[in-house]
Design a protein that fits this description.
Two copies of one chain form a homodimer. With 591 residues, the first copy, chain A, is α+β, with helices and mostly antiparallel strands. Chain A contains 20 helices and twelve strands. The longest helix of chain A is centred in the middle third of the chain and has 37 residues. The mean pLDDT of chain A is 96.
Chain lengths: 591, 591
């Protein structure tokens, strides 16, 4: 079998140059230095690092997870060399401006290129991705002193960064953050409190780590409006050297996946000597965080997509290699056929392709929106893209996580009994994948965000933008020969359903609006991914080469098997169905 | 939190006495010694063993899997005490006649009582369940000498048994079994060949293991018609003692779940000294096996159901205990609420309940059919139940495996970030569950069995029996106040769809008949589980106690969210949709 490509290069090129037209994006002033001539070498470097350096260490890092002994966290020995290579690639700041040491790559290109690194080794890239996110917060909201002192070290990978939001008692409920920050005369704050599930929160890779910590100032209002953001280093620069900053690891989380990336519980300020530096205005911490949230959520979608892609490629190679069973109706004297000759195996492969490539197109589309939002020159276009990006974000975060998990399950299933063993890789990717429906807002939270905020944003303006965009691409897909009738009906249905739910919300019937939000998220995701397949089908045109036939087959599969689920889901969302809304705990058995 | 009950006792009592009317079953001559007075103490003993003995060792056995060193397999040290207790309970032969040392329990009761043992510790019970299956083959088809010499030792648990079918090159394709059997003048055969994935194929629990091995006699026809069944002991009785029988462990499979039950690769006859004893007629081995297959497949369904049940109970307790977040519309100054107060958490719980209890009712219904098939006195009733049992078997095997996996995923999801750690149990059950869609015939194989054989059996007679049974229960459910209109339509649709597919098959259009068999299996499973909920809803009547309200809520949930998916699935199965049928390997990227 040939080595796992992680992601199909030809598909990525098709997305960038045929579907998403990054050439047009390069006309924006921010990207005039870029073109296919700069993107291709960058993509090549990412692919090489992913395939030749990161992927070969994936299994070893899964089998020998990070350790916590004597108060210190030790990463896998191979991780040191991987970190060096990631730094040398310059990936941490690749999407940031040249002024801060970056390459100013469009997010569209950054997102698809880093997907290779994720597919190769989620944990290894995780250190870099988290550092990008934390540094970006400082770049946007930090004081000049923080920017001058720390940003370069973070973007170069001399230091790493984390997001320290979650607390043990609060989980997803950030309103209940209890960590405290006390102002001092010297300008810094004294931070105290406990955080949990902090990815990359401790390591022996770099001399320092900067934690972006949510905490409350004394007297701050309750809830989310009383939360501030602080940069809290593991070691603080003092008198020309780094001294310990009273941040201690109190436990290592034994995760079932991402086992090369430490997730730790941290105690800040146990000795009342933990210095934190305010980032952004007081009590506006969550708002600052949320300005980065789209990016973080699309990153999770990319993690999920990458994890599904590498497993898809593995199962495709296995199905092409392994001989087992016979064609329907053949007798036992004939030779066994390859697994891919069985219709149900092809179904499992095409379903994975539809999910994986639909997700890749979705995250790249969201990333392209963010490029226009951040760097566009036409205010109307920026607004339009902002509405669309906000609407797409909960879908781009949750669809690849949920359906990617299904795709990963199919990859394991294709491997049969062998797939159920740790001698084969699909089980490891299945474990990795599960996190993506939990962190950065569970799927349930994404569904409330979509129904309660995003789909009704701008008094219907967001939905109108979506409708216009989809309509244009359906016309193109139809011209390319695809049957998009079910998509058209589904789009109309989404509009009428949203109006009905919005009216319920306006009348104060929150249960009626939000009760079936998970079903609504599923419905909208099927439609949006159908839109992606329409775009891709249109871009493939009427070509009859193998690649175009594959695109068309996946589009047809999605339109024929998933889109027809939409009417029943819409009926359910709009119905007065209250089975679980009305359930009392005692009905379930624990009174 | 109170200890995990594994399965809800009240629900099991409801199933046995209110839904399935085991009192009526006890009127059959085979069961006249039985009544609620004998069943209840048995259930109590199983529940006690499950909760007090097996479950407390579950995690330890998962964390320290079986080992293979120096050619020997060592089970977890605690397993020895568990095996002693399982033997003392008499569970291995509990469903077998008193003449062979059993208690002649109806399968209905056996199936639901052993589900507790499975829920507590799949691996521990696995040794017993496999021994029951292997001994049952000898009881039915074995020579008098085998029955006299070995059966008692197996049914008492002095020896264990295995099924040794799969070979490394053949996987699910039993037609390609290559192991060989050479007759000798002494009456035994010399067995040679390699087997893989043999659960319980080696252990240090008992002095001997009897493997039921599929192998070919010299000159036997190719394919499934040339396979014979042999009893092959690990040690053979010779001169009053046990001597090694040339059966060697060549490898331990590193499974991702069921980690207390060894799965091994075995080499038979490497020294040409492996004695096997023919079980059943020559070349009829697969036929003999298939006579047990219904039982084995329902057992897998029970494994899957039990694994989903224990996780459902765990997540229910967690959701009742853990406080996090607030009700929609409440402000941050109010106290956090329990997880179960969130609508989407209740959705995840009610969905688990619908899957778990629907599956329990399904496997018990199938078991009850098998009781009538085996012990009924009215030939017409026996025929009717045989048709129904055959039709239900692929569903009872695959629905709990596939939807149980989804239920296990929801149990993990409810635990949030904690669920992603190995400090909590849901991740272990999720790993355990995955096997059930693979062993004893993958879901793909079950779907071909359903569409190609079972649903069209008897020229439509099987489907007619199903239709009559469902219709009667829908009338009762309606009388209890449930809206069953969608179920009625779905039932009619299944009949017309089956006729259409059957006609395609008759005309030689195998792709047209079988291409969407996985969708057909899903459709039929939703309907059959809907039937279960109609039966249970009818049995709950119009009572308004918490238990009955819970039954009704789950029935309503299933009718409102799953049954409406049937029309689109039926349209798909009947359509000419060929997206994956037409896919060429090169279209997917590996030309």
């Amino acid at each position: 079998m040939s080595p796992n490509p992680l992601i199909d290069d030809r598909f990525i090129d098709f997305l960038l140059y045929d579907v998403l037209d990054v050439a047009a994006l390069c006309k924006l002033p921010a990207f005039t230095e870029h073109s296919r001539e700069t993107f291709d070498p960058w993509l090549t470097a990412c692919r090489r690092l992913a395939r030749d350096v990161l992927f070969p260490q994936y299994r070893a890092m899964d089998l020998a997870p990070v350790r916590f002994e004597g108060g210190s966290v030790t990463v896998h020995p191979k991780m040191h060399a991987l970190w060096k290579e990631l730094r040398e690639l310059g990936v941490i700041a690749a999407n940031r401006p040249t002024e801060v040491g970056g390459q100013q790559l469009p997010m569209t290109v950054f997102c698809l290129s880093t997907a290779y690194l994720m597919a190769a080794n989620l944990s290894a890239y995780g250190f870099a991705g988290l550092t990008t996110g934390a540094a970006h917060l400082i770049e946007t909201f930090g004081s000049q002193a923080l920017k001058d002192g720390w940003l370069g070290k973070m973007y170069s990978g001399e230091w790493t960064g984390t997001m320290a939001l979650t607390e043990p008692q609060a989980g997803s409920s950030l309103a209940d953050v209890k960590a405290r920050a006390q102002p001092t005369a010297e300008g810094h704050h004294l931070i105290s409190g406990a955080k949990i599930f902090i990815s990359g929160g401790a390591q022996d890779l770099t001399e320092n780590i900067v934690h972006l910590v949510l905490a409350r100032l004394e007297g701050a209002p309750a809830g989310t409006r009383g939360i501030s953001l602080f940069a809290v280093p593991q070691h603080r620069p003092e008198g020309g050297k780094l001294v310990p900053n009273d941040v201690h690891v109190t436990g290592l989380i034994h995760k079932i996946g991402w086992r090369g990336l430490p997730s730790v519980a941290l105690a800040f300020g146990e000795e009342n000597d933990c210095h934190g530096f305010l980032v952004g205005p007081a009590n506006q911490g969550l708002k600052c965080m949320f300005q980065m949230m789209n990016e973080a959520r699309i990153m999770i979608g990319a993690n999920a997509t990458a994890t599904a892609s590498v497993a898809f490629q593995e199962s495709l190679a296995y199905a092409n290699d392994r001989k087992q069973g016979r064609a329907l109706g053949s007798d036992a004297t004939t030779d066994p056929v390859r697994l891919i000759a069985h219709a149900d195996v092809r179904r499992m492969l095409l379903r994975q392709k539809a999910i994986v490539e639909g997700s890749l197109c979705l995250i790249a589309t969201a990333a392209r929106c963010s490029d226009v939002v951040e760097h566009g020159t036409d205010p109307a276009e920026k607004d339009r893209h902002r509405l669309l990006l906000d609407l797409l974000t909960p879908i781009a975060k949750s669809f690849p996580a949920e359906k990617g998990f299904e795709a990963n399950t199919l990859a394991l299933q294709i491997h049969g009994g062998y797939g159920y063993t740790s001698e084969y890789l699909p089980e490891a990717w299945l474990r990795d994948q599960k996190l993506n429906s939990i962190h950065e807002g569970t799927t349930g939270i994404q569904s409330l965000d979509l129904v309660g905020r995003k789909i009704v944003a701008g008094g219907g303006a967001a939905l109108l933008v979506l409708k216009e965009e989809v309509t244009v691409d359906l016309i193109k897909a139809e011209a390319a020969g695809l049957d998009v009738a079910a998509m058209r009906d589904a789009l109309d249905r989404l509009v009428s359903l949203t109006a009905a739910l919005g009216a319920r919300g306006a009348s104060g019937d929150l249960d009626g609006m939000l009760g079936h939000s998970t079903d609504f998220l599923e419905l909208t995701s099927i439609l949006v991914v159908g839109w992606m397949w329409a775009r891709m089908g249109a871009a493939a045109g009427k070509r009859t080469d193998d690649f175009a036939e594959g695109i068309r087959a996946a589009a047809k599969y999605w339109f024929a098997t998933e889109v027809p689920r939409i009417p029943a889901l819409a009926t359910l969302c709009e119905s007065a169905e209250r089975s679980f809304l009305d359930v009392k705990p005692a009905w379930l058995g624990h009174g």
